[in-house]
Design goal:
mainly alpha, 3 helices
């Protein structure tokens, strides 16, 4: 089965370059990237079902109440 999608030229060019560097056909590269993205979303959804708000709040309470390191602050 094949489908067509439109992507910005800069995205297409970057993906085509990466696929070429990997010596993989562009279609295979894109299909693998999409499969990886879907697998990651599935993993996150499964992890979310194990979350517990009370445990999260407890973990936050364990963090020190100090200013962030200068490397961690927004610029």
């Amino acid at each position: 089965m094949s489908r067509q999608i439109s992507v910005p030229d800069e995205v297409y060019d970057k993906v085509a370059r990466l696929a070429g560097e990997c010596r993989v056909p562009l279609e295979d590269f894109v299909a693998a990237a999409l499969a990886d993205q879907m697998a990651a979303r599935d993993w996150i959804a499964r992890r979310a079902t194990r979350s517990n708000e009370q445990e999260f709040l407890w973990a936050l309470d364990q963090a020190p109440d100090t200013a962030p390191d200068h490397l961690d602050q927004r610029r």
